[in-house]
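Case study 2.
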Amino acid sequence: RAARVARYDSTMAEDFLSLRMDGSVSGKTATVARWVPEPRADGAAGPDGFSELTDISVRTFGGIAVVRLSDTQYDSAGHFQFLGHTTDIWRKEGGRWRLAILHVSRASSAVAASEDSATIVALEHDIVRSSAARDAVALDSLIDSTFIGTAWTGRSYGKRAAIARWTAADNTGEFSALTGITVRTFRSAAFAEMTDTQHAPDGRALRASRAIDLFVRDGPRWRLVAGHALPVSPPDDPAVAAEVGAARARWNAAVVRRDTAAVRSLVTDSVAQTSQVFRRIGGDAYVTLMGRIFARRSDLELHYTSNRIVASGDMAFETGRWEERWRENGSARELAGPYYAIWRREEGAWRIAAEMFATID
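Prediction:
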């Protein structure tokens, strides 16, 4: 405990302030006491949870740094408690960075997030069962009319084609089994990531894919608005992942230069974009939108920060956080949130085949 207290003491500024989700404010001493509680009277340590930090971004302004991140809190047994979004203000003092302000806002509680996650998992299995039963009516109720899917080949397709494909009469009894489903909920949007293994009628595994789906809350119901897949084999290749990371860096640099031609070279002809509020297909439409945004927001700052890239042959998926800033009518505006991107290698070059993103800030 003494070592942890000393570590916090050396990292936090003397005038440190913590702004908590309940609106309370505490200084350095009270915050450290809360983070590192005294041992119980019987000498035993109290329950100690832990955090998982993701979507970290850092912006520096001379001797000030602003850090944005998502903070998922778990109890000591590893059970989800809540998802918060944290903004940290760091200040350089005597050559060292010290934490001056920490502000946390709750995005979802354990109860609400677990209920939504359970609903999404159930919907994923409903889609699989309806496909196996060739129940087009059930699939129609589960899939949004604006649905966009992307196949392994990078080809995009809509709702009607998806239902026809999943209920095809020439489907010889193959069926899917979903494993490792993980769900991330963000208010009205939810990402589901899983392994989808196709089986022959006799139960033999035929092929497997990584599947990433985007659900959007439509009133009281969740509906599938996007689904993308890529093969899970060959094994992940770090060198290829680095190539995709370099392609993302070129995309960010092209946005800084307002170079729509360079942006166009980094997306496929059939690239699909999906969010809570719009769906769009086509490389030309993608660049047209970017050009309009550049013209409307001359001071635009738009940046995608990767936190994970997984490569499988000529396909890869990337997840991270996007941030967009500009000024409008004299006021600073900012949007941000998580994203998934599917990349495809075409003629030796990596291009974006699909993007899904949610706005949470």
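The chain has eight helices and 18 strands.
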